[in-house]
Design a protein that fits this description.
This protein is of the alpha/beta class and 396 residues long. The chain is built from 13 helices and 17 strands. Strands 4-15-14-13-12-11-8-7-5-6 form a ten-stranded mixed β-sheet. Strands 1-2-3 form a three-stranded antiparallel β-sheet. It has a two-stranded antiparallel sheet with strand order 9-10. The chain is globular.
Length: 396
C-alpha cells in the first residue's frame, strides 16, 4: 500500500491517493469502502460490480470472521488468498474484525485475551494469534488490529481498560509479524476526550501503515463528536491514511471529512437498501439540495421508499439524471413489483443505485475540497436538508 496526501486545505478536508497492488489505478480519497458479506456486497452479484463507478468502487471491506463458517483459513491460503478465491484481482480489500452491520460490541464479553464477536458460528472470543493467522491466510491489502470497542455508557474505568487492551493487542499483532497487508492500528476511547487522545498517541508511536478509528456510533452525543475527532486527528501523523467505522449519514461523512478522515464504511447504504429506500438527494456541486416552495413538499426528497404503493405504476427511473445500471434499465414500478413478490432482485437493483449515488456524493465532495469550497459546501448541504425537514414537519 502507498498513500500520498496531495493537498490539505484550510477550508476543510484533504485530498489523497491510495495505491494498492491489486488495483489498476490509484483511488482518490476521501473514499467509500463497500461493505460486504464474505467478500462481496450483500446483494450485488459479481458480474454487476463492474457497473459501479471505476475506480471508486474498488475498495471492499470484509470481516475475516465471516469466513469461520466455510472454508478453513489454511484452505483459503492454499487457494491464494481472498483475491484469488473471490476472483477480485483488481479490487482492494480492507479487513476489520467487527462487522458493524451484524455485530454490536459486547463489552462484557471481552477479556484480556481478546474481544468478543458475534460470528456465523456463534459468539466467540478472538485472540491476537488466531486473528493474525486468519489475516495471514486471507491476505487483504489492509487490515485493522483488534479493538476493545465499548459503548458510551460504560464506566470510566472500563473505558480506560478498553484503551489499555487495544494498545496491548496492537503490540501482540505486530509482534506476530503477519505476512500480509498493511497494518492499521485501532484507536478507541469511547466518549472520553483524554482516553481518545491517549490511545491515538500510543498507536501513533507504533510502526503501522495507517489508523482505524472505532467506537463511534455507539451512544456518544452528536455534539461530542467534533471534539473527539479533533483529539484523535491532531495526534495522528498527517502522512498516513485514517479509516473510520460508525459514521454513515451524509452529514456524518461531511463531519468526518472536515476533521481529516480518508476512508469510510458504507453500512448506511446497506441499511437503506434493506428497508427499501432509494437515495434521491441532490448531487449539486454547490451543496444545494432542494428547490421547493414552502408547504409544497409531497415527499422526502432525501430518499424514497420503493415499497410504497404510490410507485406501483410509476414508469420513471429512480432518478432521471442518474447513470447507474438500475436507473438506465429499470423503473420504480418494476422495483416496487419485485418488493411485492419478495424477489431478491429488488435489493440487488436498489443496492446498485444507492452505492452508485453515494460514490457520486464522494466525488462531488472531492471536487468541493479541490476547489477550496468544502466548508461552504458542507454548510449549504446541511442547512438545506434541515430546512427541508422543518418544511415537512410544518406540512404534516
Amino acid at each position: 500500500m502507498k498513500f500520498v496526501v496531495k493537498k490539505a486545505y484550510c477550508s476543510g478536508g484533504r485530498i489523497g491517493a491510495l495505491e494498492l497492488g491489486s488495483c489498476p489505478k490509484p483511488i482518490e480519497t476521501p473514499a467509500l469502502l463497500l461493505s460486504t458479506r464474505k467478500g462481496l456486497p450483500h446483494f450485488i452479484a459479481p458480474d454487476l460490480l463492474t457497473s459501479l463507478p471505476f475506480p471508486d468502487s474498488h475498495l471492499l471491506q470484509i470481516s475475516p470472521l465471516h469466513f469461520l463458517e466455510g472454508l478453513a483459513s489454511t484452505t483459503i491460503s492454499k487457494i491464494g488468498g481472498l483475491h484469488q478465491m473471490l476472483s477480485l484481482h483488481q479490487y482492494g480489500i480492507a479487513a476489520v474484525a467487527r462487522d458493524s452491520i451484524q455485530c454490536l460490541p459486547e463489552s462484557k464479553g471481552a477479556t484480556k485475551l481478546g474481544p468478543s464477536f458475534e460470528t456465523p458460528c456463534g459468539r466467540l472470543s478472538i485472540n491476537s494469534k488466531d486473528y493474525v493467522e486468519m489475516i495471514s491466510c486471507m491476505r487483504p491489502n489492509i487490515w485493522a488490529t483488534l479493538a476493545d470497542e465499548v459503548p458510551a455508557w460504560v464506566s470510566e474505568k472500563r473505558n480506560k481498560t478498553s484503551v489499555d487492551r487495544t494498545v496491548r493487542w496492537l503490540d501482540d499483532c505486530l509482534a506476530l509479524n503477519p505476512a500480509a497487508g498493511s497494518v492499521f492500528g485501532a484507536v478507541v476511547g469511547g466518549p472520553n476526550f483524554d482516553e481518545r487522545m491517549r490511545c491515538a498517541m500510543e498507536v501513533a508511536k507504533r510502526n503501522v501503515s495507517g489508523y482505524w478509528i472505532g467506537g463511534f456510533g455507539l451512544g456518544e452525543r452528536i455534539e461530542e463528536r467534533p471534539a473527539l475527532l479533533s483529539a484523535i486527528i491532531d495526534v495522528l501523523p498527517d502522512e498516513k491514511p485514517r479509516m473510520i467505522s460508525g459514521l454513515g449519514l451524509p452529514e456524518e461523512i461531511l463531519e468526518g471529512i472536515d476533521a481529516g478522515i480518508d476512508l469510510f464504511d458504507s453500512t448506511y447504504v446497506y441499511c437503506l437498501t434493506l428497508g427499501g429506500f432509494a437515495l434521491t438527494f441532490s448531487l449539486d456541486n454547490g451543496g444545494n439540495q432542494y428547490d421547493f416552495q414552502r408547504c409544497q413538499v409531497e415527499r422526502d426528497l432525501t430518499k424514497i421508499n420503493l415499497r410504497a404503493k404510490v410507485y406501483s405504476k410509476d414508469m420513471s427511473p429512480i432518478l432521471g439524471n442518474c447513470t447507474c445500471y438500475t436507473c438506465r434499465n429499470h423503473t420504480k414500478a418494476y422495483i416496487n413489483h419485485l418488493f411485492n413478490v419478495h424477489e431478491m432482485l429488488a435489493q440487488t437493483l436498489l443496492e446498485i443505485h444507492n452505492t452508485h449515488h453515494y460514490l457520486m456524493f464522494f466525488r462531488v465532495i472531492r471536487e468541493a475540497i479541490k476547489d477550496g469550497r468544502f466548508k461552504k459546501f458542507r454548510m449549504t448541504f446541511i442547512e438545506s436538508r434541515r430546512v427541508h425537514q422543518e418544511t415537512k414537519a410544518d406540512c404534516a
